[in-house]
Write the structure tokens for this entry.
Amino acid sequence: MEVLGVAVELLVMFTGFGLLIGILFGFFGMGGSFLVTPALLVMGYETNVAVGSGLAFVFGTSVIATLKHRDLGQVDYKLGVLMIAGTTAGIEVGKIGLEYLQHVGLADSVVSVAYVGLLGAIGAFVTYNAVADRDGGLVGEEDVDSEEEMPAIAQTIQSYRVPPMISLRGGVTVSLWMILLVAFATGLLSGFLGVGGGFIRMPALFYLVGVPVPVAVGTDLFEIVFSGGIGSFLYAQSGAVDLSIVVPLLAGSALGARLGAGATSLVEEDDIKVYFGVMLLLGALAVAVRQVGGYLDVPVLDTVSLAIILGAALLVSGAVILSSIRELRRTAPDSSSSAAD
Amino acid sequence: MFGIETLGGNLQAAVLIGLVLAEAVLLYVGYGALESVLARRVTELIRGI
């Protein structure tokens, strides 16, 4: 049986896959093309269609997730616009570095190692810090915006009071130049590695700028609306966006993004960081396996890599939902039930 | 699909991205309505009230 020329089984599979990715995307502000593009490649789609359709899907999901985070008061538009400006400049410079490496024939090896290293390093750093924070006390502390919970690097960056100073959500005040510098650095890495960069920006917004994690996720998603929109437009110009992929994926992810975004207001900040770190560590492992497969010319490792990514996505999104349910049950019946949405 | 293959490059791209945006907004509104109807009931069910 077919709907609009697409087999119903395929539509159901894409919708389920979209739901899974949507939860992660709404919860972390990353993971869309990271998960979709390799899956489409393994399913046999052309590279340009896999990338273009992945970007269009990321664009649609980021619109939904940003709207949901806006409802929860977790998007800082001022910070988002400044991040877009700084990131765009950084990406251009990063691309120059990548082109130079391509010119000297080192692009593939350097970018692969840097990508795996960066994913692994950020994953390990975020996980270690979250676990250390949890073990180090603050049990029962409810004030998530308090000074002692702000990372030391963010406090140092905020101490450079070069005017104009910008007030951000979460009671944070940072110099405009510091925000642009952080945005430029994340864009530089993003352009150099040729990736969307949600996994770099979200921790950068929390650890360097100092905004609370939910605001970092919401603002990162706001930025992805623009990068995903422009990227998918460029691919759509050459007909590389396949709506039979994007439409069912988006139908699933729209629900998942709502659940994921809602979960950020339920799950403890440290738990969010642990899940994020584990997702990145498993992502690094998956990318490393794929690179080794390409280097040794062992195609089966591509499938192993995809299995690791899908397994990680299933594991982490399941953990997010379970944490939310546990938190809901822990909450007293007479406290705000609106937190559930 | 959706009969937009006959349009030129830029126009086709713009219509396609517009369609994705329209679907996203529709889904946001649709699931939002569903949430406003079901959220409280599901929350109470989870809390065991």
Remarks:
- The first helix of chain A runs from residue 8 to 28.
